Amino acid sequence: MSYFGEHFWGEKNHGFEVLYHSVKQGPISTKELADFIRERATIEETYSKAMAKLSKLASNGTPMGTFAPLWEVFRVSSDKLALCHLELTRKLQDLIKDVLRYGEEQLKTHKKCKEEVVSTLDAVQVLSGVSQLLPKSRENYLNRCMDQERLRRESTSQKEMDKAETKTKKAAESLRRSVEKYNSARADFEQKMLDSALRFQAMEETHLRHMKALLGSY
């Protein structure tokens, strides 16, 4: 079995957004299921009314002749079908209430989840920021090193060499801090991303089990 915590890391750390938007589809699918069942209930109700109308038509059949007893058979069978489909309509309407009730529970669960995973979203944004800063710091350091080497080859004055060395040291220190920030942000992101992935997986599994039960009732 594959687990969310083993996947969805993705390029540029977009996995969290993919998972979050996937989980958000749960209430939408629940509403769509309710709409589908409601349409089915309408069809069953219409059919029930049509069979009741057919039963009335059969009861108006002529009572005379050898065919007359069959009109009673048509009336009874039509009545039974009308009642069966009316009962099915009622059961479907009860099921719609169950689906809508579950949908309300889902919205509460998702609201709570959104509050719980906001720190992961923050971690994603922090990591994105330091990830952009790191290459710039590295490039700045390499440029300072190249400038210092160029001045050395050109036999520049000691004063200029000292200035270049100072700039190189500052660039090196800036790069070191950038690397530390990146490593810290990366570690924080990985831990929070793993926690959120497992939370999302639990929500999806619960959702699918509940939807399966509703479909079983349907």
TrEMBL record:
* Domain named F-BAR: residues: 1-218
Where does the record place the region Disordered?
150-171
Keyword Coiled coil in record: yes
SUPFAM superfamilies per record: BAR/IMD domain-like (SSF103657)
Gene3D superfamilies per the UniProt record, alphabetical: Arfaptin homology (AH) domain/BAR domain
Its keywords, alphabetically, are: Coiled coil
**Can you name this protein?**
FCH and mu domain containing endocytic adaptor 1
- Organism of derivation: Homo sapiens (Human)
Upper lineage: Eukaryota, Metazoa, Chordata, Craniata, Vertebrata
Gene this protein is translated from:
FCHO1
